[in-house]
C-alpha cells in the first residue's frame, strides 16, 4: 500500500500511525491527503482552511506551481551531490539570503535542513568565539536537539534530557536591564527570537533589540537572532528585526545582528535552513572541518527556497502579509469578548483569550473547517500561508464568535 492510499479513510491510517510511529507528537488531529493554496483535505474528504501552514512553513500555500515546477525541474536535473561539490542553486541561495539581509562584506552562509540545525550551527559559532557563556530568553524556543534544547527555555522539554550543553542562562524576554546584567566578558552570544513564536507570539517592547545590540557590542558578544519562525516575510517584513518597532535603533536605522537563523518558510514546505554570519568576524567563525551536513545545500532544497523567495518578492507577499495582518488583527480583536487582544506581527498572530480555552477553541475550529493552533492555554496562533486572501481571513473572523461560544461551553467556563 502506498502513502496515498486512503481506502480505509482516516481511521485506518491513524490506527497504522499508532502502530508504526513513535508517540512524540501525541495523537494527530486528522490524516491529511491533499492541499491546494490555503486549503487542505483530510482522508475522509473534509476541507479545511489552513491558518497554520504547517506551523509557519507553507509561505506559498500548498502545491504552488512555481514551487512544484522548481523542485521537479531540479530533481530531474541534479537531485543531490555531496559537499565535495558545489552547485549553482546553493550559491544562488546563499547570495540571495545575503542580499535580503543587506549583509556587510565578509558575511557568509551555512545551509542546512531545519531550524534546529540552523540554531545548532549558530551555537557552534558561539563556541568558536572561545567564550563559554550564552544568554537566551525565558519563553524561548530554538529547537529540540541537545544544543538547541539548551537554548530552549521550557523546563518540560529540557528536564528529561539533562545534562544539556552548559553555559546557557535565561533572562526575562523583553527586559533590556536583565539582559545587560546577564552579559559580561565571558558571554559568547545572546540568542533571541525577534518575536517569540512558540512562547505565545510575543513582540518585545520597542527598543529591546537595539539595547540587546548595544549590550552585545559593549561585551564583544554575538547577537544571534533566530528568525526561523519569523523570517521570509511571515511578519510583514522579510525579517522581523527589520520592523522599526522591533529592531529599530535611535538613529532611525535597524539593528545589525551578527548571526541570523532561518528555516520554516524558506523552502515553502521543502526542508531547508540557513545560518548567516554577518560581517567578517561571524562569517569566518566556522572554518574547515568545523561543521557539516550531508544534505545541507542540497540543490533541490535550494531550488525550492529560491522559487519561494522569488514568488514572495514577485507577488508582493511581504507587503501583503503586513497589510492583511494589520486589518485582520483589528477585526479579530473586535470579534468576541473572549478575545481580549491580538499579539504578533503580520501573518504571525496570537489571539489572546480571557480564559485558558485555546485547546477547546482550536478543536472547535477544526470541526468547523479551520486549522489553527493553541500555542498556549490562552493563546491561539494563526500563521497562515502568505497567499491568504482577505476573503479567507474574513471567513475565519465571521466564524470566530461561534467558535468562542463553543469553546466556552466545552470547557465549562475554562477557569480550571
Ligand atoms: N527556532 C524557532 C524560533 C522556532 O520557532 C523553531 C520551531 O518552531 C525552531 C527554531 C526549530 O525549527 P525546526 O522545527 O525546523 O527544527
Ordered list of secondary-structure elements with their pairings:
Layout: H1 9-20, E1 32-36, E2 39-42, E3 47-50, H2 53-56, H3 65-77, H4 88-100, E4 108-112, H5 115-127, E5 133-137, H6 146-151, H7 155-158, E6 168-171, H8 176-182, E7 187-192, H9 208-219, E8 222-226, H10 244-247, E9 259-262, E10 273-277, H11 279-283, H12 299-314, H13 317-333, E11 339-345, E12 348-353, H14 358-367, E13 370-371, E14 373-376, E15 379-382, H15 390-410
Parallel strand pairs: 3-13, 5-6, 5-7, 7-8, 8-9
Antiparallel strand pairs: 1-2, 2-3, 4-10, 9-10, 11-12, 12-15, 14-15
The structure holds pyridoxal-5'-phosphate (PLP).
Structure, explained:
- The protein is of the alpha/beta class.
- The protein has helices spanning 9-20, 53-56, 65-77, 88-100, 115-127, 146-151, 155-158, 176-182, 208-219, 244-247, 279-283, 299-314, 317-333, 358-367, 390-410; strands at residues 32-36, 39-42, 47-50, 108-112, 133-137, 168-171, 187-192, 222-226, 259-262, 273-277, 339-345, 348-353, 370-371, 373-376, 379-382.
- The strands form three sheets. It has a seven-stranded mixed sheet with strand order 4-10-9-8-7-5-6, sandwiched between helices. A four-stranded mixed sheet has the order 1-2-3-13.
- It is globular.
- Pyridoxal-5'-phosphate is lined by residues 114-116, 119, 141-143, 193, 197-198, 226, 228-229, 263-264.
